[in-house]
Design brief:
The protein is mostly helical. The chain contains twelve helices and four strands, in the order H-E-H-E-H-E-E-H-H-H-H-H-H-H-H-H. It has a four-stranded mixed β-sheet with strand order 2-1-3-4, covered by helices on one side.
Length: 252
């Protein structure tokens, strides 16, 4: 069967109390999925959520995102599946531009937002993930310093984009607030589990205030996963690591 037919057939047989034009395939602990949930709620878009088991990937995921095989994946009516959180966020913003617009109206400002989002995803996120999963103490310390430098970069970016207001987007939550804010649960998790503050008031005073503003927002509180969900997600990631090599002394 053609992959597109598999996707449509799968979606049609999912039990639902109410038909929704949009369906989101995700994993609860994923910050990238949190981003998409954030936008859907801000724009008051009804959707059906499908939880994916990343340890036993479904046929739906494998056929809808065959290259990367990761979440989120957004399905809208019978259109092609959409992948990558930043692309999905922009799709939703263009789909319903009059409800809580995310990107600034100025084209130059929009480009700068996209550049910072790309930088965050290609630098800060890999550092955060490796920090959680590394088994080497020295490497974790190196990554800690890299994340501190990243937080200073974000502080500078916040001052530039917020123009003295509460959010990256100004008076209200915008594109960059969601890009970075999707990781607020993980940042809090780091503080509890690893005793490490990615955002520290003395080092990042404006970002620290921004974090408080985000946590006080009703939508943020409803979509950011709990500590328990983050712990479960981390244990899943750790379970997928290759086993440690057995040393000669251990084998003796």
């Amino acid at each position: 069967m053609h992959p597109s037919l598999i996707i449509i057939s799968y979606l049609l047989i999912i039990p639902m109390t109410k038909m929704c034009e949009m369906k989101l395939l995700g994993s609860a602990g994923s910050a990238f999925v949190t981003r998409v949930k954030f936008v859907l709620q801000l724009k008051s878009i009804e959707y059906e959520y499908i939880e994916e088991d990343l340890c036993n990937k479904s046929e739906l995921l494998l056929t809808s995102n065959p290259v990367f095989q990761r979440v989120p994946v957004l399905f809208h009516s019978n259109g092609q599946p959409m992948t990558e959180s930043l692309a999905i966020m922009e799709y939703l913003d263009e789909l319903i531009p009059d409800v809580h617009p995310l990107l600034p109206s100025d084209p130059s400002d929009r480009v700068q937002c996209r550049v910072l989002a790309y930088t965050f995803d290609t630098l800060c996120y890999p550092w955060m993930k490796e920090f959680m999963l590394t088994r080497e103490k020295e490497r974790r310390e190196e990554l800690k310093q890299m994340l501190v430098q990243g937080s200073v970069m974000l502080e500078e970016a916040f001052v530039k984009f917020s123009k003295g207001k509460a959010f990256f987007g100004g008076d209200d939550i915008g594109y960059l607030d969601i890009v970075v804010g999707g990781f607020l649960g993980w940042i809090k998790f780091y503080e509890v589990v690893f005793n490490f503050k990615v955002i520290e008031e003395a080092r990042n005073p404006r970002l620290a205030e921004w974090g408080k503003s985000m946590w006080s927002h009703e939508v943020a509180r409803s979509v950011i996963p709990s500590h328990e969900i983050h712990m479960k997600f981390l244990n899943m990631l750790i379970g997928r690591l290759p086993p440690l090599p057995v040393s000669a002394s251990d084998a003796a």
